[in-house]
Design goal:
Helix content is 46%, strand content 0%. It is mainly alpha-helical. α1 crosses α2 and α2 runs antiparallel to α3. The protein starts with 34 loop residues before the first helix and ends with a helix.
């Protein structure tokens, strides 16, 4: 997720494979926050910064909820909240 009007992203995936019989691939996607989502939240009383923060937290929540280790999950929550 890219935030800010002048923000750019340059993804450079690096894979280190130490075996000759392994195949690997990598993918990456980057996008801006959906204007419709911002509009929806600002119409419901959030300012633009609060709405942006809420959308970003929602994005990370869907991934963090998959972490099974309680300590690791706590560290991740602390890093974004």
């Amino acid at each position: 997720m890219v935030t800010g009007e002048n923000t750019i992203n340059n993804s450079q995936p690096i894979l280190q494979i130490d075996a000759n019989d392994v195949r690997a691939s990598h993918g990456s996607a980057t996008g801006r926050i959906d204007g419709n989502q911002l509009y929806y939240l600002t119409c419901r009383g959030y300012n633009k910064n609060e709405a942006t923060d809420l959308i970003i937290r929602g994005f990370f929540e869907s991934e963090i909820s998959k972490i099974l280790d309680a300590k690791a999950k706590k560290v991740m929550y602390r890093s974004i909240y």
